[in-house]
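Late entry, written up from scratch paper. The run itself happened at the end of the previous shift, but nothing got recorded in the book at the time, so transcribing now.
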Amino acid sequence: MTQHTLSECPVCGNNTFLSHEVLWPELVSSWQLCEHEVNYINRQQGFHCSSCHNNLRSMGLASAIKKEFSFTGTLDEFCKNTSRVSILEINRAGNLTSFLNKSQAHRLIEYPEFDMENLDIPSGSFDLVIHSDTLEHVPNPKRGLSECRRVLKENGACIFTVPIIVDRFTRSRSGLPPSYHGQSGVLANDQLVHTEFGADAWLTPIKAGFSSCEVYVFEYPAAIVLIARK
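Output as recorded:
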């Protein structure tokens, strides 16, 4: 596993980090994870900035956003100083929301008021759509991404993360025992997993109509971000 020696958090600029394990036995079993996979998912979700508390997954998302708009500062600075970029955040992207909210052109929508498969938003409204570890909970992920594409302006981008098991192909959990993300022992309907994404995760946005999908690697295999362009 290739691990970053991070000099600073791409979200806030802090330079100290903490780590803790997040997976629990029932989820490891339902996901059929081997030790190597447990280790990099724990790093993805549990390694975090000691100041803003964004984990490695969210730091990767922040870095991808900055890359897409050729911005060299922190995400905090990007959001404070870039009012020209209209941003739609679908469900809270970890601890990034408080930073994204500093942009005057940011809008947060959340389930169940908004259903990703049928967004009550006019077409061509946003430059950027963001979601983080949400798509696996959407019954029809291709439909969800096609809605993200619809609400984007021409040349807009949907930048998102999903939990990716890099040595497998994507599979539906239809017909398998229910599996829930979130917290151990919490069986909330919005945490039910419909899709387990693998190395071919990039195909879903292509099938949803995006013209390209970049696999952006902040750290392999723990922090992989997909950048789908309209």
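The first helix runs from residue 25 to 31.
(Scratch paper discarded after transcription.)
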